[in-house]
Amino acid sequence: MKIGWHIPAFLAMLALPAAAADYELRPDSKLQINSVLASVNGEPVSLEDILPATRQQEYQAYAAYSGDRLYEAIRSIRRKAVDDLINRKLVIADYRQQPFAIPNQQIEEELDNVAERMGYRSRSEFIRQARQSGSSIERLRRQVEENMIYQLMLYRRYQIEQNITPREVYEYYQQHRGDFVRPESLELGMILLPADSPELEATAEKVGGELKADSGRFAELARLYSAGPGAENGGTLGRIERRRLRPEFAAAMPDLSPGRVYGPVRTAEGIFFLKVIAHFPEEQSDFRKLAPEIRARLEENRREKSRERYFEELRKDAVLRYFFGK
């Protein structure tokens, strides 16, 4: 069986749990990076543990929500990440009760695969970067081993039957046609000049003028001026469905022209400039092309039900505590 690896999850696993600290979940507050969000059998799960896995989703939430809805969206994203990490810890603890051998060669090969997928040209470069980030090759090897353990334990639990008939595939397609229409979406860039910033109007006029003269400088100006999510990456929020845009943003962008900058858009948070980096029209479904995807979805549904039953069993005997703000 091929062991899959997801880089965001890998990065999340590299974070060290830390001591508890006061923490306000609202997105406009200063984040306490060592805040403890939960504990499982006395072992803490901190904000630092989950942020690498949630950051991109949180960025996209800023394009869809504001105020309390934004707060609730981020809270939901983080709660799911916490639950996922708790489930992972419980599965690995279950393995420790009755361990089975994993060949060291397989661990080493997967470690090399991880380094390659992360863009490192050699194991030594990978190790050097890990040390600069406060980690070590021993710790990375342990995390690779735990990832393999987690996936193997789940595989042993569900043992999915692959005998899904063509009729089942077609019936599922007929019942879920709407699920296979890819909605219109866009890749969005954002610059936020906060309402309480000094000389807000002058800064907005300056940024707006420079964008009008050269929209290609959007990423540069986002890094210089934006207080919004993803500023360090040029303001890019990733891909979002058009129907999920905040009403203020949707009204400001009646047409979606790649490369065009929209704004200023004034809200209670401040002044926004928005850029359509790419536009993806709605795509209609074609059963013949979708049949393999539907089969995979049916298999995943069965695996998901098996995972849920397994997690429920493990949680019955675990001591779990959550420290999310009200």
What does this structure look like?
The protein contains eleven helices and seven strands. It has helices at residues 7-13, 47-64, 67-97, 104-117, 123-132, 137-158, 166-175, 200-213, 218-225, 247-252, 287-316, and strands spanning 36-40, 43-46, 185-194, 236-241, 261-267, 270-280, 320-322. The protein has a four-stranded antiparallel beta sheet with strand order 4-3-6-5. Strands 2-1-7 form a three-stranded antiparallel beta sheet. It starts with 6 loop residues before the first helix and ends with a strand.
The CATH level-2 architecture of the largest domain is identified as: Orthogonal Bundle
Mean pLDDT: 84
Provide the CATH topology of the largest domain: Triger factor/SurA peptide-binding fold
End-to-end gap: 43 Å
| Percent range of helical residues | 40-55%
Number of strands: 7
**How many discrete domains?**
2
Order of helix and strand elements from N to C terminus: HEEHHHHHHEHHEHEEHE
Q: Reading side by side through the largest sheet, how are the strands ordered?
A: 4-3-6-5
Shape summary: globular
Task: Specify the number of helices.
Answer: 11
Based on CA atoms alone, the radius of gyration comes out at: 23 Å
Taken as a percent bin, the fraction of beta residues is 5-15%
Which CATH class of the largest domain applies here?
Mainly Alpha
The low-confidence parts are 1-33
Q: Look at the helices and sheets and give the structural class.
A: alpha+beta
Largest sheet: 4 strands, antiparallel
Q: What would you give as the CATH superfamily of the largest domain?
A: Porin chaperone SurA, peptide-binding domain
